[in-house]
Amino acid sequence: xxxxxxxxxxxxxxxxxxxxxxxxxxxxxxxxxxxxxxxxxxxxxxxxxxxxxxxxxxxxxxxxxxxxxxxxxxxxxxxxxxxxxxxxxxxxxxxxxxxxxxxxxxxxxxxxxxxxxxxxxxxxxxxxxxxxxxxxxxx
Amino acid sequence: xxxxxxxxxxxxxxxxxxxxxxxxxxxxxxxxxxxxxxxxxxxxxxxxxxxxxxxxxxxxxxxxxxxxxxxxxxxxxxxxxxxxxxxxxxxxxxxxxxxxxxxxxxxxxxxxxxxxxxxxxxxxxxxxxxxxxxxxxxxxxxxxxxxxxxxxxxxxxxxxxxxxxxxxxxxxxxxxxxxxxxxxxxxxxxxxxxxxxxxxxxxxxxxxxxxxxxxxxxxxxxxxxxxxxxxxxxxxxxxxxxxxxxxxxxxxxxxxxxxxxxxxxxxxxxxxxxxxxxxxxxxxxxxxxxxxxxxxxxxxxxxxxxxxxxxxxxxxxxxxxxxxxxxxxxxxxxxxxxxxxxxxxxxxxxxxxxxxxxxxxxxxxxxxxxxxxxxxxxxxxxxxxxxxxxxxxxxxxxxxxxxxxxxxxxxxxxxxxxxxxxxxxxxxxxxxxxxxxxxxxxxxxxxxxxxxxxxxxxxxxxxxxxxxxxxxxxxxxxxxxxxxxxxxxxxxxxxxxxxxxxxxxxxxxxxxxxxxxxxxxxx
Lengths: 139, 523
What we know:
heterodimer, A: alpha/beta, Rossmann fold, 4-stranded parallel sheet, 13% strand, B: alpha+beta, 3 domains, 6-stranded antiparallel sheet, 21 helices, 52% helix
């Protein structure tokens, strides 16, 4: 996946520059195209349909998508806390086009509407504060 | 000044600009006897017929002209835009059937079974009519039908003669069949007409109910009334229902508000005097023949005026505030907005000390918002580290362009809130409480708009958590991750992904859409 992604990033450089510009304006960040090539490693154990809760960091999204290829038959939801929506949309859209894996990007301001869903595995990924908060909310 | 200017027209009475809850119960008879006439026609009756009775039987001019339609219920509107008049359709049909067969149907045990009662009566009566028409039973053996025949007979003969005078074909038909000269034929004719109508009601019962549940079009009635009669008649009816409610220990009905309006108008128009025929007034046990405005004033002052009912007192207070026209809905909205703002401010003041940016703080707020800790002897290393983080976070928010900053009291002790000009409020429990100033274990900042903030201020923390866990999406929480400051700036600067921005993102992404899946195969 990573190699393909690198190819895609190179082929859609102009579009990505535009998307990054939008994200940086909204999120008050200084993300750049090169940052997309930075690799992040995560290990996740996929047991079924899953809601991933992240702070929206694009490299976290790439790492999650990389893991999904091993379990292509589940349905996945990705909450990104309204951060880097443009890049996250690009990443998930291209991923779906390449793999046909069912993944829905949640663009809401919070994940409250999922709090009563007991048909999904809830998987917070990221910093400790986020993980703790999510665990408390879904407990 | 005319009384109509003070009390208003039909819509002013029954759908005032300032609306209220509660039911009126009014007989359509009271409307009909308060009608203006034109070319011998009772205009209110004609309009009621047009809006409702015509659904039951299209040709009211001959056979059923003597039918008196019955009760109308007046209820508050469901949509919140005013009040509506809706007939009590099953009662209406019950009275219609009673009137048709010149009998009194028994009072229903409850309103839920009235439709079944009506239908059962019609089924039974149809069975008997059929037996009589087939000569298996004598008309005299069924008291209801025999009575209906006797009471309808003369009216039918008169109608048939009138028709015969006006139409050659009807004249020939009547002569050939000898309806008018042959008693048996006349019985057959009347029973056949009753059968037709009973069958029609039974067949279309549910449809009639459905159509009759349409609210009355009140605007059509505004110019049809003799208002002197209508006001006094309504006043008497409503006075009776109010007294009836009081005697039964119930609350006063909504209709009492009309009594106040009418009474106040009569007080203004000191020389105004009017009398009505008071026979057949709903709920009137006295059976008097005449009723005057003086009778009304006397009864009102005796039975209603002395009552210390909060709703009436409120109405009196409203009437007395001459500088504000409470019948103007815009004024009421303004007043409500003011009261809501006042109430909101009261709720916030109970839980928060707010100060505008740049103003000096109260000593209490000062201690919570800016004071350094008094002593570090009880703080372990972890707490000390946490305190530094909390102070840093607080410092960050202190440097943002907020317009008000507040410290929480009571159940919000230890919280600090920042209000921004874009309507967002950011708040967080920074400290356990203002006495110890120990850093709180909180790991999230709450963000919401000012309306939600007022609502949240009414709740305890467990209730807020419950509110969030119920799935409500209007309260944001931002965790203390490395992107916390950037998140706060996005909120403070209102930099969100708008609908337009998301559409732009979608357009950009669609430009590079992968059409073939060749790349995918190499995954």
